[in-house]
Amino acid sequence: MTADAIAGLRQVHARLKSIGTDTIPRPHELEAAAEKVLACSAELGDVAVADPEEVRRLLAYAVKSLRAAEKAARAHHSDPAGRPLSPVRFALKAGSADGALESVLELLGPGN
Asked: Roughly what angle, to the nearest 10 degrees, separates helices 86-108 and 2-18?
């Protein structure tokens, strides 16, 4: 199960990396990504790493950032002209989630 969870985190990380600077995905994509991170974190449980508490903290931060990016995407798609800062807010939150996932994958080890 741990390998599946790590593969799921890698998928979300790759998806976040693939988002262009001029593109904001549909909110349901971000919601699905947050749900996947939650499911993977539950599967990981107490995986053998040097600092499991840090892994849990980073995963929680990734979910929180994905939810905030989802909110920015909703604002952008519902009224793009009225929300000029939503692309910036989206980029900030999506980047934060991506960084947290990258840190988790590094903590889980290069062999994972």
From this structure: 150
Cβ–Cβ < 8 Å for 69, 94: yes
pLDDT in tens, 60-77: 999 999 999 999 888 887
Q: Provide the 3-class DSSP secondary structure of residue 79.
A: coil
* Predicted TM-score of the model (pTM): 0.87
Tally of domains within the chain: 1
Question: What is the domain-level CATH number for residue 57?
Answer: 1.20.120
In Å, what is the CA distance from 2 to each residue of 8, 9, 41, 101, 102? 10, 11, 10, 15, 17
Kindly tell me the sign of the dihedral angle through the C-alpha atoms of 67, 38, 91, 52.
positive
Distance, in Å, from the CA atom of 102 to the CA atom of 26, rounded to the nearest integer, reads 22
Domain of 94 in residue numbering reads as 2-108
